[in-house]
Hints:
2 domains, about 80% helix, globular
Amino acid sequence: MSSHLTIAVGIFSITYMVIMSEKLHRTVVALFGAVLMLLFSVEGQEQAVHHIDANTIGLLIGMMIIVSILKRTGIFEYLAIRSAKIAEGDPWKILVMLSGITAISSALLDNVTTILLIVPVTLVITDTMKINPIPFIITETMMSNIGGTATLIGDPPNIMIGSAVGLSFLDFVINLAPVVVVVFFVNLFILKVIYKTKMLANADQKHAVMSLDEKLAINDVPLLKKGGLVMAITIAGFMLHAQLGYESATIALFGASLFLLISKIDPEEILLEIEWTTIFFFAALFILVGALEDVGVIEFLAEKMVELTQGDIATSSVVILFGSSVASAFLDNIPFVATMIPLLQNFGLQTGGNIDVLWWSLALGACLGGNGTLVGASANVIASGIVEKHGKRLSFMEYFKVGFPLMLVSVCIAYGYIVIRYL
């Protein structure tokens, strides 16, 4: 077991460093690292496949199919032009508007679905105005993770915590939404300072947007009506999935298959447009993190985090908040939270006290920590994949330079909130 532990940590570390170096495509590197875990018998093939989160992969594929068909109606161009005209062609106003829509949508849907819908709209605006899309994409990605923190369904860690502890949608809103609002505005202010020189547009660029007629963008009204019906059913499904007893992937795949059925578009045409490189990157990442889970690395980290606190609730909340945020920035937060849940339940039994504050610390740390790196959250990887397919590039380091410091600021705000409200 010790040799497997060394090999697993070695392969994961090297894979991560090569991804960060950006010398090779991250999907190729991640796949190679995942296969090395199998070749060195760190985990078996069946084990590895078991670690791939079918819910995440199914959700991504389902929503990518829906977005791909919707794209043919011209609705993204319509929304882009309308948003830009409301903001009078001012890049900063456009960014604020899109950030607000992103955060609210992420809370009501989930952050991955929101990014799949908002990034194509953003790229239409930046292409029309001939401005750099990267500041928009980084901001929207971060806001999707922040917004998703506020509710039970916004981010997978919250769903896991809610179902394990019996916390409701309202519990999450009451306890997390207040600090999420503060984090949103603080991040938006700092991002304005960072990108103020890149958020400028001259008279010609503004005129290019204001002269467009958004009504002309809609090119297939019957398909748009069908798409509206499918989206309404899918969104309702997302909001009620806990009551209905279905996973979010089931709802997304139902919406996708229904849309394929009623649109009568060649499925091969649609399936070719799915971000397969992103899907395979996720699958490989799940296998890599799963290997660390199998050899006990994640459990060890979680135990040490709890051990450091010696049963003190106040100290525990700080360690869990900051520890889970840093861990979630570099690892996948789903297996980490899955490991932490039974440890915290056991911690509660041992101390015999009320540990509600620890669940909120874990939720805030795991969700906000996703903003730390480009691979810290599903939404980040999806956004960079869409941008790459569009011919632009969002590098690991470019995101890290902005994301990691702002993640630390967000977690410090969350710490202040936890101390004032609970401790």
